[in-house]
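Comment thread on ticket #2218

A.B. wrote:
> Attaching the input chain for the structure job we discussed in standup.
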Amino acid sequence: MRRRTSTVKRETPFFNAKREHAELRHELSEAVKRVCDSGWFVLGDEVAAFEREFSSYVGAKHGIGVNSGSDALFLALRALGIDKKSEVITVSHTFVSTVDAIARCRATPVFVDVESDTYCIDTAKIEDKITDKTKAILPVHLYGHPAHMDNVLKIAKQYDLAVVEDACQAHGAEYEGKKVGSLADAGCFSFYPVKNLGAYGDGGMVTTNDRRLAERVRALRNYGQSEKYYHDLIGINSRLDELQAAILRVKLPRLDEWNERRRRLAQLYKEILEQTDVVLPTPRSYANHAYHLFVIRLAGRDSCQRFLQKRGIQTQIHYPIPVHKQKAYAAFATTKDLSVTRTICTEILSLPLYPSLTDEEVAYIGGVIKDAIS
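C.D. wrote:
> Ran it. Output below, let me know if you need it in another format.
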């Protein structure tokens, strides 16, 4: 009979912001002081510098800081001309902001199923959904794993469609050696605090290699303004503030190191759980997974989650209800062939994974999972 792990409860939060702040406290304090001393808090030097630094990191020519990842997606689509006459192909297994951005453009989201191993859009099923109203494809690099972009871009070129990458969970992830966010017409990022590169509040960015598109997004984020008091477009107020930009500038140089730590912890999880019935993440050969989330699949997910909670381990489900099943998006729930999406939402479980998580904590979590399913 296999020996069970210790029954001593160890509190293990899903995310631990205090550890990260302790490591960076001095530099972050200096960054905040620098902004406060400048007296400039919106669209100043910090935002401009971070836009240059982050777009350079991604490998894109332009970066436009905005209020959130949600607004990044919305503004990228708006800038590409997506409107009420448009259909945009995307997935239902994603955070609601992906689809919300399409709906805010008054366009129609058209759902395609996901792959059972990467949880990204199943590119083999895209062409069947294309109509004369289709204007764009919005693939999601979910959990930090890139979608199969060669296939997406090939289809988009054939049908003259725009492509916007939802990279809100994929900071630093790579597809065929290139950073996501640089591969399509536009890439969209969120800097929500729990992301691989997180602010101390909301924030987002659109990256692009298209100068005209960048100019349009830049205007749209600031009331459609081309210069002060001259408004050429109907835009919104969606500006990354100076304090968040300064904080993100402190963190950006550490992103690759933090992502590598995530990969090492992910490998440790796999080594502990590989001889069990748990389905583990398996990155494709083209992908350098950023492991924003470490998502497993297992039968009896809910009972396992309760067992972990009793032992002090916080977990989450990303996402328990597909977007097409949400009340707000019921009008778009016309697709019937989302069998993978329907199945995985009953089996997936996100485990704690962040750079300051220790090897010992991962070993404890893995051991408790083994106890839960034994």
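A.B. wrote:
> Thanks. Noting for the ticket: The two ends are 10 Å apart (CA to CA).
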